[in-house]
Amino acid sequence: MQNLKLETTSDGFAILTLDAAGQTMNVVNDAFIADMEEATTKIATDDSIKGVILTSGKPAFMAGADLTQLVQGFGTLTKAQAFAFSQRATRMHRAIEQSGKPWVAAINGLALGGGFELALACHHRVLVDNPKALVGLPEVNVGLLPGSGGTVRLALLVGYKTALDLLLSGRSVAPAEALKLGIVDEVVPADKLIDAARAWLATDPDPVRPWDVKGWVPPQKKGLTVPEDSAAYMMAAGAIAQKGYNTPAPQAILSSVFEGQQLPFDKALAVEGKYFAKLLTDPVARNIIRTTFISKLAAEKGARRPAGVPKSEVKKLGVLGAGMMGAGIAFVAANAGIEVVLLDRDVPSAEKGKAYTAKAQAKLIEKGKLSQDKADAVLARITPTDDYALLEGCDMIVEAVFEDTAIKADTTRKAEAVIPSTAVFATNTSSLPISDLAKASQRPDQFIGIHFFSPVDRMGLVEVIMGKQTSPETLAKSLDFIAQLRKTPIVVNDSRGFYTSRVFRMFIFEGVAMLEDGVEPARIENAAKAAGFPIGPLALLDEVTMELPVKIVAEAARDSTEEENKYTIERGMKVLGRMIELGRGSRKAGGGFYEYPAAGGKRLWAGLAQEFPVSEAQPDQEELKKRFLYSQANETAQTFEEGVLETPEDADLGAIYGWGFPAWTGGTLSYIDTVGIATFVEESDRLAKLYGQRFAPSAWLRAKAAKGEGFYPAPGQAVAKELTSA
To answer: E-assigned strands of 45-145?
Structure first.
């Protein structure tokens, strides 16, 4: 057995240790299940073994299923095959329960998903008292549900209300809460873990689970005839509906728990397995897993890092500009152990930027997530100044001054007069072409764009932009710096607006185009949220200010030829112009599309109906959702065609983590593949005829559709066979 070690002891209590060969983490896959089947059979048939302690030889107990294996089977895996895969793991857990021997899970670290399902199949659970030893069933976060008994056992163990809270939120809990909830039986210090497990076995516990006792009755055999239960399930269904209908996993979890509480145990497991199979073969799970897990992890491990360049580390960072963006960059860098020189036009401005870190830390200290000593150490790493001479010795500069080419050029020249010749100079800009900004640099090969998202300390994505002369070494150093900050990078090529800003604008402008078309404002906002966007475009424009997109569009028209200008806006500028004219350009200005009463809250401005009359005939919500999704997906396809984007993974990561494109789609290019590229082109033509040329697919996209060529490789048959192998 390559994934397990079975040790028999003189007291008759065997120790079964999870220890996957060549892996840093134990995961559920075919090889592991095969080894568990073999070990369980040995244990059940060995009369010398009185009980089993199940633990791990790795720092964590066990993670969930091998998601890479699961997602690669999409497209070739049938529901029957997915069900068979689920049932094999389910049978493995049932073999533990029905082995005739008591099993105790000695959980020495993190146990999530399939790892915690394994622990639930044991008769007793002892968890190490370590805040990093999180336990839970987070499958909903990747579009799935626990597929080997998790929904059934958890609901029987702690009741359906607590189970639904954990399953639908996908949250993981630390030891103290796990014990309080009853999902573990004991919490003990690390050096007492095995002793506590052995002590429980020494009590000669009954190895028969309650649901295997003859005459056992399911807890909700009466179904919805119990008023309290009926009300609870209806409330849960309403809460799911309120969050949107795009992700099928929450509804499947609710149904699995509801049905499982009324059925004999093994039938409940079969029902859960069928829901799991339905989700596993649904494109939503594939999309979520591929982008938010596989692609994200690959990006963070350096998928786009040029090979052959030695690893580097930033020890001293210069941040030019102490506004909100610069202050946030200084905070995350100091938090990563980097010495930071925070420079602004005068010392009070720089001090104000440093105060951002102190304010953010105070909130963490208040929540008990940060000690005062550690906070003081981080704050001490930031040196506020107006003196460029202090930049001497910096490994890297991140310039985050005002979005003006002349100001950025002056800042670049002053900094390069001081910093080492080996230092990387990065400009944080959301739209200005990097190659143009690099003209002010003496070393354009060491000049790069690093676009952080605001607020920097909460947004994990960083868009790295290659200028025309940026060297591979500069890219590698920049990606190493982003890895130090523990953020997720995407790499794109130079163009006005690059990728994220260019496509994000399609969301807000589509919203104002709808308003110009006579669509009800509330209908616009609700359609965006129903599609899965975190906020409606009108509310978002109030926050970012309407002057900003208007300014960017105007600058693009000024600095580009008509052929080069990708920022031409087809519809919506009239709306923004009128709102600015009315003095309603933002929330900060006192109000925009919304009113903000002094008492709190917000409501759509009553004057919108007068300024932008509503049409008598209103489009249905699905049409509006499609306009939002298609406009952004089509623009992404154009950036890919132009070479701004080089990989679909960068496109999808940027969409989800950059501006909140709905996660259920997997991102803008995954959305095209999910719809089907031929269908996407056909529907885009329909939308273009109705609403404008921004929806029109290019000749390049039409050619891809004609060949049936999506953005990701077609699924392979081999993985499907692997998932169902015996």
So the answer is: 51-56, 103-107, 111-112, 124-128, 135-136
